[in-house]
Amino acid sequence: MNFALNHDPRLAVEIAGIRFNNPVIGASGTFGYGLEFAELIDLNRLGGFSTKGLSARPLAGNPPPRIVETHGGMLNAIGLQNIGARAFVEDKLPLLRRYDTRVIANVFGYSDEDYIEAINILNDGEGIAAYELNISCPNVKEGGIVIGNSSVAAARLTEKAKRAAARPLIVKLSPNVTDIRELARAIVSAGADSLSLINTLVGMSVDVNTRQPRLNYGTGGLSGPAIKPIAVRMVHEVASAVNVPLIGIGGIASAMDALEFIIAGATAIQIGTANYYDPTVTMKVISGLSDYCDCCGMDNITSLIGSLIKS
Amino acid sequence: MNFALNHDPRLAVEIAGIRFNNPVIGASGTFGYGLEFAELIDLNRLGGFSTKGLSARPLAGNPPPRIVETHGGMLNAIGLQNIGARAFVEDKLPLLRRYDTRVIANVFGYSDEDYIEAINILNDGEGIAAYELNISCPNVKEGGIVIGNSSVAAARLTEKAKRAAARPLIVKLSPNVTDIRELARAIVSAGADSLSLINTLVGMSVDVNTRQPRLNYGTGGLSGPAIKPIAVRMVHEVASAVNVPLIGIGGIASAMDALEFIIAGATAIQIGTANYYDPTVTMKVISGLSDYCDCCGMDNITSLIGSLIKS
Amino acid sequence: MIETIATVESNRELATGYRHLILNFDEEVPVRAGQFAMLKAHAAYEPLLRRAFAVYRAHGPRQLSFLYQVMGRGTEALSYLDRGGKVEALIPLGNSWPIENCERAIVVAGGIGSASVLMLCEELARAGKETQVFFGASSERVAVGCGLEDFRALNLPLVVTTDDGSLGERGVVTAPLERYLREGVRATIHACGPWVMMKRVAEIAREFDAPCFTSLEAPMGCGFGVCVGCVVAVKTAGPIGYGSYKRVCTDGSIFPADVIRWEVNAMTL
Amino acid sequence: MIETIATVESNRELATGYRHLILNFDEEVPVRAGQFAMLKAHAAYEPLLRRAFAVYRAHGPRQLSFLYQVMGRGTEALSYLDRGGKVEALIPLGNSWPIENCERAIVVAGGIGSASVLMLCEELARAGKETQVFFGASSERVAVGCGLEDFRALNLPLVVTTDDGSLGERGVVTAPLERYLREGVRATIHACGPWVMMKRVAEIAREFDAPCFTSLEAPMGCGFGVCVGCVVAVKTAGPIGYGSYKRVCTDGSIFPADVIRWEVNAMTL
Ligand SMILES: Cc1cc2nc3c(=O)[nH]c(=O)nc-3n(C[C@H](O)[C@H](O)[C@H](O)COP(=O)(O)OP(=O)(O)OC[C@H]3O[C@@H](n4cnc5c(N)ncnc54)[C@H](O)[C@@H]3O)c2cc1C
Ligand SMILES: Cc1cc2nc3c(=O)[nH]c(=O)nc-3n(C[C@H](O)[C@H](O)[C@H](O)COP(=O)(O)OP(=O)(O)OC[C@H]3O[C@@H](n4cnc5c(N)ncnc54)[C@H](O)[C@@H]3O)c2cc1C
Ligand SMILES: Cc1cc2nc3c(=O)[nH]c(=O)nc-3n(C[C@H](O)[C@H](O)[C@H](O)COP(=O)(O)O)c2cc1C
Ligand SMILES: Cc1cc2nc3c(=O)[nH]c(=O)nc-3n(C[C@H](O)[C@H](O)[C@H](O)COP(=O)(O)O)c2cc1C
Ligand code: FES
Ligand code: FES
């Protein structure tokens, strides 16, 4: 199949050897398994998407309520409910192969072994462009510590995952750390081909009437426009600390938002929460980026990456 | 003078031996030196306020632009412009003594010595109820590290400050850390009488047209409703880690917001950014808390502190 | 499923805090009784998320209406809309009321849950199925706000209850339902209302083993199945595992009452 | 300084993107020429911060008007307001134009900066001071949006310039100003407009050493002096230190042009 005509060549970007038709990627957990959007947008126009976190075995997820809206964002504690890596390979991938978009398999586990097991299952799948290691999900900490918040644990897992992975490895960073540069360096030294950031910030909302947390799990991950300034700052910090391509994530809802991340140092961006309240937002952002290239007479968006001018 | 009639006895709280007529306190940097609000609200009804960060010597602050609004909040990089501890003691305190409200002196320095020097100057002042150590200002890091992000440095400074301070010592925590409980424990062991949290989260906003950061300083501190869920979560975490009274801060703009923090574990709360866009918000929150006591037939708001029910 | 921007025909207040929103769509929107839409005042910065509303009525292929209660920020934003105003809409969503194999029907509406069953009543009437309606509200004002007049206009047997007795029978709507079934009537129950009401309806249905369908509510992030935030706990053979939670938006919003684990409430309230 | 909720009398569009907002206040609001207010559409969740707007005109002790350009989220929210709508207002703020010791006056308005000088012109006329007005805009449309008709109605000597020449002299407003001073006129300059324009006006004033006052803009957090976010860099004897930055909201918004360090722009744009 040839969809080339759909694409604006000025928007093409490459991450770890993978060519994305444009830098706009659906964020994990907000894009289902991609197919849910087939009715809403032209998946062939989409740069790519990251699947809901896939684990070796299907997961039940947390009891409800799982989400609550806050000012400028939302808290979620889904708990990684997912069909499992095997079902994804067998039931979803065949349907996804019909589309010209990059499928990133977002991988999750409770232990290093879980991650490796999931990767091994996914290695059999055809049509996966890369893996995104979700070591930063705040809603499933086992034994109190989130792997992604410890450089040592994160590097160890990255090394194992890299060895097991038959495809480029993107590691997704947690923003809930004191120094994200240190974390990034450790993960890149351990072999990550690319970093995506940020995952959600841990938050809590209390129902004053019941005096209970609004989420059954207690705490949840904060996402949406509210966290954008924190995400842009972290992308900028990490861009100066490592030399692998970055995927910027956090509150993006427009082409202007996407450009902030690219200028700050991101090669591509992921759109999460905005897909919920504006299901066609990815298409709007892609068009917006083309318009921007028109205005500035730019022949390649890559010339904008990390172009921030400091005073 | 006797203002007792103004106060709802059910709202009185105590922190480190200081009685606040109610738990509503103006946050540092958003309440000037208090007097600016005399025209707008009845300062005698206010529980208290924390001054703009005071340093041993007056500070110029950062070049403009210093603020930019974001979704649900704002970024600021004021750079601690202030009249200095001496001028505060001589020019502001005499006027403030006319009011029946608790004055908290927010103290800032670039080195441990600076802090101690400022505290020594303030010790001479009459009418200061307590000190609030701002070790978490993200806009003035010297040598790249923010004291407040390191448990060791924070504990060391707290110990020195406690020794110098002629008044109760409140230490203000930085939210830009991996584990705020560990930081809180270290600071309390070092002698802090109370903790206030949170200060702003480090963020950045980029002007896509100029490709420069919107703030001259580059990064800034994120405040406002956007950060409330993160602040509530951190107050809840710290409440379970230490046993000194906590002052909750972060995005509070209503009595309901204040109650979320109190239920999560705060004895009192500070209102910051909301004072800008709703100058009488402190009065509204105080009335709202009284209304809440009426509804629930509560005779003391303190019975609500840390009353979160976990599922 | 259509993603579009609809135009407000009218947004009339039926009673304080309750409004009837009529929207015009550029294209035909085929909806079945019980389906819903995700709506948001166009270009509103806050709140971000759209809100779920059952389709109350189809006035024509391109004109649909919604009945809503002003709860918080989202419905407040909708309440400010005037004729000509714009509304972002994703529609139609969710499954619909199954009426094929029901001989005789009972419809139970609690509060604003009424919005989800008016079209059902119309369909049942059209299909000529004997139908008994139980309509509960906290007061006469709320009953009016929840579309009482439209239900009366159906000319179906209708029992009204109010918590304060200001209209009809005083008490909860499940009381007359229970008496009705005790009389030995065999019928399929269709219920929509507050969680506690539906929980009780489910108990009653089990007691009289009457088939029972309920339309559930949950806070919704997307409305089309991708956030997995709107789940309810369902009964499964084994221990908790994948399949223990179903999405209200795409697996529902209508579920057989006996598959729901009513002790696990999806809402904080 | 009064914190209140005003009611919209009218909110008419003078030209695309430019509106005249007339507000009614419950109490008398004493304002002097050049003062401003912090305004926000009532109960709007976003944006949070109020926006600064010069008082354009005093129609009566309780009725004031504002002239504004729709720039972004805040002014957009204001543009949606209709008669009867509510506006949160903190007013009056800042200092005012000093006209006492000026014999002869020059008023330079650039774009929407005009909003800050109409009352000044009225005052100067009332005080019988000889006044020359220079009114610059990017086009005729913008000139109309910036209140050109109101300035014409003052019957003061008025020179209009537009960047595209669609009205009056083609070019920047500082050109005729310069010619005027070159003719040897000694007068006090009062200017409000874009930073670049005021910077140039300041240079010209220095060249002809004419007293010059400028009303500055800066992003404002509070408008009453507590956030210290709205500063501009001012000239000081020593090196950068306390006093090197002044607040536009309370130390200004009007400053003598020669105290400002024009190379340090307060705005990102
Ligand atoms: C499938 C479905 C169909 C619905 N149909 C209708 C309808 O036809 N008419 C109608 O008035 N309402 C309907 N609702 C409920 C409606 O979605 C909520 O009232 C609305 O989301 C409240 O939004 P808000 O911003 O006004 O209030 P918020 O500020 O979001 O919340 C205010 C209060 O309402 C609660 N709440 C939040 N979300 C929901 C929710 N999804 N359901 C119930 N309570 C909630 C919150 O916990 C809070 O206590 C439906 C809900 C679902 C899931
Ligand atoms: C003392 C004073 C008086 C003013 N008087 C008027 C007036 O009478 N009429 C009028 O139309 N405008 C006036 N302004 C400018 C007005 O405040 C801004 O246009 C407004 O804040 C823009 O808000 P927004 O939300 O619409 O745009 P935003 O979304 O906040 O910003 C849109 C664009 O405007 C820029 N901007 C943001 N804040 C300001 C600001 N304070 N000044 C200039 N640009 C800004 C941003 O950088 C951005 O590029 C005045 C400003 C000051 C400081
Ligand atoms: C409901 C929900 C579920 C999510 N699930 C995942 C997940 O399974 N794996 C993952 O790596 N990130 C997950 N995320 C995080 C997002 O991919 C993204 O990093 C975050 O939401 C910030 O981007 P945003 O502000 O655009 O939403 C989830 C986010 C939300 C809101
Ligand atoms: C413009 C501005 C200046 C501030 N200056 C100080 C300061 O000098 N010292 C300090 O401890 N905190 C300072 N803060 C942080 C606030 O006190 C508060 O911790 C933070 O804004 C979060 O609360 P909020 O969301 O209610 O604003 C400042 C905040 C803002 C917005
Ligand atoms: S609302 Fe998102 S999955 Fe149901
Ligand atoms: S706007 Fe806050 S000090 Fe000037």
How would you characterize this protein structure?
- The complex is a heterotetramer, with 2 copies of chain A (311 residues) and 2 copies of chain C (269 residues).
- Chain A is of the alpha/beta class.
- In chain A, 29% of the residues lie in helices and 19% in strands.
- Chain A has helices spanning 85-96, 112-123, 151-164, 180-189, 228-239, 255-264, 274-277, 281-296, and strands at 13-15, 18-20, 24-26, 48-50, 67-70, 73-76, 102-107, 130-134, 169-172, 194-197, 201-203, 206-207, 212-213, 220-223, 246-249, 268-271.
- In chain A, strands 3-4-7-8-9-10-15-16 form an 8-stranded parallel barrel, surrounded by 6 helices.
- In chain A, helix 2 (112-123) packs parallel to helix 3, helix 3 (151-164) runs parallel beside helix 4 and helix 6 crosses helix 8.
- In chain A, 63% of the residues are buried.
- The model of chain A has no long low-confidence stretch (mean pLDDT 94).
- Chain C has 6 helices and 16 strands.
- In chain C, the strands form 3 sheets. In chain C, strands 4-3-7-1-2-6-5 form a 7-stranded antiparallel β-sheet. In chain C, strands 11-10-9-8-12-13-16 form a 7-stranded mixed β-sheet, with helices on both faces. A two-stranded antiparallel sheet of chain C has the order 14-15.
- The model of chain C has no long low-confidence stretch (mean pLDDT 95).
- The chains are: A alpha/beta (311), C alpha/beta (269).
- Chains in contact: A-B, A-C, B-D, C-D.
- The structure holds flavin-adenine dinucleotide (2 copies), flavin mononucleotide (2 copies) and FE2/S2 (inorganic) cluster (FES) (2 copies).
- One flavin mononucleotide is lined by residues 27-30, 52-53, 76, 78, 80, 106, 134, 137, 172, 199-200, 223-224, 227, 249-252, 271-274 of chain A.
